[in-house]
Design a protein that fits this description.
Radius of gyration: 19 Å
Strand order of the largest sheet: 1-2
Mean pLDDT: 86
Largest sheet: 2 strands, antiparallel
Structural class: mainly alpha
Strand content: 5-15%
Distance between the termini: 67 Å
Shape: elongated
Number of helices: 4
Oligomer: single chain
Order of helices and strands: HEHHEH
């Protein structure tokens, strides 16, 4: 007797895609960002973002997260 999977590959891909989409939507609404997330948003390296934090151009919380508002302020000031 041959066992057949309950879900096919396309069903799994669709479920994963929908889950990732929901995760990204929730993450976008988050007000605190990691250094890695900010580096992706700004197209800079993690090292550059750390330098921006160390020099005070980006402020962080005690836990090292960067408020989204700080990123927005930075973007307004570089123009």
């Amino acid at each position: 007797m041959e066992l057949r999977p309950i879900f096919n590959t396309e069903d799994i891909k669709l479920a994963v895609f929908e889950a990732l989409k929901e995760f990204e939507t929730k993450r976008e609404s988050s007000k605190l960002l990691s250094i890695n997330a900010v580096s992706k948003i700004l197209g800079k390296s993690n090292k550059t973002i750390k330098k921006l934090v160390d020099t005070g151009f980006l402020k962080t919380t005690k836990s090292g997260l960067i408020p989204k508002s700080e990123v927005e302020k930075y973007l307004k000031n570089i123009d």
